[in-house]
Amino acid sequence: MDNRLYIANSQIVFSFRRNLEIRKRIFEFEDALKDEFKIPFRAFAIPDDIDPNIPRFESQSLHSHSRIKVSQTRIIFATKYNDQFKLNYKQVENYIENKFNLISKLTESEKMNFVAYIVELGIHMNEKELNPFIKKNTGVFAINDTCRDFSLLYSKEYKSDFYLNIKYSKFVEQEMKLHEESKSFRPTGNIKHGISVVLDINSKPFFDKNKKFDTSLNGKIKEEVFQIINLKRIEDYLKGEI
């Protein structure tokens, strides 16, 4: 079996102290990101005292693969990768780094708490091989031929300054194809099975210990994420050998 995981999607989360007036920065964001994202940004008429986690404005990248959402407490940059990117780890890393550098400059005026990288990986497997493979690499007795769903999450402090969270689960997906006439996606009838791995590293432990934000950790997080992605196999994630 080819045990190389593909990259399905990613998120970078910039977390900061609540800014009740974040909506006033929409024009600043538009000006800084106009070469990368669609202008004007979409704004939401939500009262300032309502849930700080609700986005106040957002936009899509020019090719619609990425989205940026800005709330009173965080900026989320999310990307879904197509087949051109999925197995090209270096291309994904370069894309993320480019966008990260643009967006991080916009966080300099905020009172930052931490940054998180969240990357979802995946691997397709024959349905009949899936449960035996999971049981072999986890030792979980509940896994047998009748098991239809399975997920596991483990978290730990990682290299002193980071939290590492790993969640893996079985998935079933319906392959979709673009219908040229209607310009809509339609199911092909091709069902794929596999394992999804969500890799999440954030710098919250450093902030908790020092009560300040250190920009030097931003590059270190990216290095750690892609070192894990490049070196670890699906068996390593299932066994917890990260």
Describe the secondary-structure layout.
Blueprint: E1 6-16, H1 26-33, E2 42-43, E3 57-60, E4 66-70, E5 74-80, H2 83-86, H3 89-106, E6 112-125, H4 127-138, E7 151-158, E8 162-179, E9 184-202, H5 204-210, H6 216-231, H7 234-239
Antiparallel strand pairs: 1-5, 1-6, 2-3, 3-4, 4-5, 6-9, 7-8, 8-9
Query: Oligomeric state of the chains?
Result: single chain
CA distance, first residue to last residue: 21 Å
The shape, in one word, is globular
Structural class: alpha+beta
Average pLDDT over all residues = 93
Number of helices: 7
State the low-pLDDT regions, or none.
none
| Total E-strand runs | 9
Following the backbone from N to C, one meets helices and strands in this order, namely: EHEEEEHHEHEEEHHH
Radius of gyration: 20 Å
Largest β sheet strand count, sense and barrel closure: 9 strands, antiparallel
Placed side by side, the strands forming the largest sheet appear as 2-3-4-5-1-6-9-8-7
Beta-strand content: 35-45%
Q: How much helix, percentage-wise, in residues?
A: 25-40%
Key traits:
single chain, 242 residues, alpha+beta, 9-stranded antiparallel β-sheet, 29% helix
Structural features, described:
With 242 residues, the chain is of the alpha+beta class. It has a domain at 6-12 and 117-239. Helices cover 29% and strands 36% of the residues. Strands 2-3-4-5-1-6-9-8-7 form a nine-stranded antiparallel sheet, sandwiched between helices. Strand 8 and strand 9 form a beta hairpin. The radius of gyration is 20 Å and the shape is globular.
Summarize the structure.
This protein is an alpha+beta fold and 242 residues long. The chain has helices spanning 26-33, 83-86, 89-106, 127-138, 204-210, 216-231, 234-239; strands at 6-16, 42-43, 57-60, 66-70, 74-80, 112-125, 151-158, 162-179, 184-202.
